[in-house]
Design goal:
- Helix 3 packs antiparallel against helix 4, helix 6 packs across helix 7 and helix 11 packs parallel to helix 12.
- The chain has a 7-stranded antiparallel beta sheet with strand order 13-12-1-5-3-19-20. A 6-stranded parallel beta sheet has the order 7-6-11-10-9-8.
- With 473 residues, it is an alpha/beta fold.
- It is globular.
- Helix content is 40%, strand content 19%.
- The structure holds adenosine-5'-triphosphate, 1-O-pyrophosphono-5-O-phosphono-alpha-D-ribofuranose and nicotinic acid.
- One of its GO terms (molecular function) is nicotinamide phosphoribosyltransferase activity.
């Protein structure tokens, strides 16, 4: 995207200019990205958006037109001269895309100059919050769809060009294919598509619409059967065409149901297709599907549906349309920094940190330990906000979550493709106990502070409070 360095909030640039004027621009900063509440009343988030972020950061710069625009907004010539040489040179640490992440554990760290780390805040939040949200929604649909095909149909309902990132995130969360052609090209996602009612309406008779489509597209044909009357017209006509295709050595791929009682219609259509000798013609369903409807169709009603086309609910994360991930300063020139708040839940964890994923004896995820960066093993974790709650984890397997993915502004190694991230997400979900995956009142996954971090946090709080009470009133 052109001028992408301006894809930010004004206050990032206002602060950056202030840091520059104050001689603070080159102080060493560490910022943490984390979220506080899982969306959809669920128990986890699927981390996504890293590849997009790193690709943009590698090439981040202020071009002549952007600098000219900032000049018109009143930014200083000296600051603009500095921005004209700006290149993102920081280090980024994170786990791979597809990792399951939990409230309060920092999962993306930016370590660089105060100026560069501040300047990327909005871009980072925009990309990671959105893609992680959509990947999480997609993963919930994958949870209930089993091995059935999930196709993203959302572009027409997506929020503008966000539709491109939504299609990629849908794959990270477990979707198989997309109708979004640009996403297919950009991210190497298999394309999939059927036809709309307009095609059927453009012919005088449904059977002619089906026949003509099948003549052009043969084995790839999926016929939309609900334009007039699904069971009296659509399915019988599709069966006629399936027979004609077979006579020419082809097989009809599927029919698509797009309205009405999808379980009832799928059952009746399945029987009609089977009785007519077409047990391999698949049944696709669409129409405002989400994870709850898909589960009801498959689990409660045992609907014989093979393919789900999902749009609006997926790409807009309809029931919880924003992930509130935040980006907070943790260290400046190696001094831990804290943000106090009236609300305990909004207080930050100061200092350079590492996150350990703790597994139980069966190898399942048990907890995340947020520790100081130099710690190599965590004995005990403490609840971040309830001091009396603590757990001994000294005997459990501990894996480092934050690994360098970018150094000196250049990515390390190759970025995961959407499908590699999807495979990783699938492995991760298999390691998350069912009580954290369930949709209703999931059991809260433990995220705790190491004793050293807890002490550092408490000291920083005490210092900050003392500072407050020393102020003249
Ligand atoms: N058997 C079913 N069990 C649970 N939910 C279903 C079932 N069949 C359809 N639905 C869902 O019910 C919702 C409403 O279906 P309905 O047929 O009323 O669709 P509509 O969008 O209001 O109208 P239209 O069917 O004309 O598009 C949709 O979200 C659909 O996915
Ligand atoms: O329902 P979604 O999950 O968003 O999936 C995409 C929908 O888009 C298409 O119809 P469109 O919405 O254009 O028209 P319709 O609602 O009249 O079928 C398609 O037939 C799906 O129903
Ligand atoms: O290919 C389809 O059937 C399709 C694509 C986008 C939206 N609705 C349906």
């Amino acid at each position: 995207m052109d001028h992408i360095a301006l894809y930010t909030d004004l206050y990032e640039l206002t602060m950056a200019q202030g840091y520059f004027r104050e001689g603070k621009a080159d102080q060493r900063a560490c910022f943490d990205y984390f979220y506080r509440t899982p969306p959809f009343s669920g128990g986890y988030v699927v981390f996504a958006g890293l590849a997009t972020l790193l690709e943009i950061l590698e090439d981040l710069h202020f071009d002549a037109a952007s600098l000219e625009f900032l000049k018109e907004q009143g930014f200083d010539a000296d600051f603009l001269a500095r921005l004209s040489e700006f290149r993102f040179q920081a280090e980024i640490r994170s786990p791979p895309e597809g990792t399951l992440i939990f409230p309060y554990a920092p999962v993306l760290q930016v370590r660089g100059t105060l100026l560069e780390a501040q300047l990327v805040e909005t871009l980072l939040l925009n990309l990671v919050n959105f893609q992680s949200l959509i990947a999480t929604k997609a993963s919930r649909m994958r949870e209930v769809a089993g091995e059935r095909l999930l196709v993203d149909f959302g572009l027409r309902r997506a929020h503008g060009f966000g539709g491109l990132h939504a299609s990629r995130a849908a794959v990270v969360g477990g979707f198989d294919a997309t109708s979004n052609v640009l996403a297919g090209m950009h991210y190497n996602i298999p394309l999939s598509g059927t036809l709309a009612h307009a095609w059927i309406q453009s012919f005088d008779r449904e059977i002619d619409a089906f026949r003509t489509f099948a003549e052009h597209y043969g084995d790839a044909s999926v016929l939309l059967v609900d334009t007039y009357d699904t069971l009296k017209s659509g399915v019988p006509n599709a069966i006629t065409i399936a027979g004609e295709l077979r006579a020419r050595g082809h097989e009809l791929k599927a029919i698509r149901l797009d309205s009405g009682d999808l379980a009832y219609l799928a059952r009746r259509a399945r029987k009609m297709l089977d009785d007519a000798g077409f047990p391999d013609v698949k049944i696709a369903a669409s129409n405002n599907l989400d994870e709850h409807v898909i589960r009801s169709l498959l689990v409660d009603q045992q609907a014989p549906i093979d393919i789900f086309g999902v749009g609006t609910q997926l790409v807009t994360a309809y029931d919880d349309p924003a992930l509130g991930g935040v980006y907070k300063l943790a260290t400046l020139d190696e001094v831990p920094r804290i943000k106090l708040s009236d609300s305990l839940r909004k207080m930050t964890f100061p200092g350079d940190k590492q996150v350990f994923r703790i597994r139980d004896a069966e190898g399942q995820f048990y907890a995340d330990a947020v520790a100081l960066d130099h710690q190599t093993h965590v004995e005990r974790i403490h609840h971040p906000h309830e001091p009396h709650k603590e757990v001994d984890i000294s005997q459990l397997d501990q894996e480092l979550l934050l690994q360098p993915v970018m150094q000196h502004g250049e990515r390390i190694g190759t970025l995961h493709s959407a499908f590699e991230a999807r495979a990783y997400c699938r492995q991760q979900l298999a390691q998350l106990p069912a009580e954290h995956r369930r949709f209703h009142n999931p059991h809260l996954y433990k995220v705790g502070l190491s004793t050293a971090l807890r002490d550092q946090r408490d000291e920083a709080v005490a210092r900050a409070r003392k500072h407050l009470s020393d102020r003249p009133t």
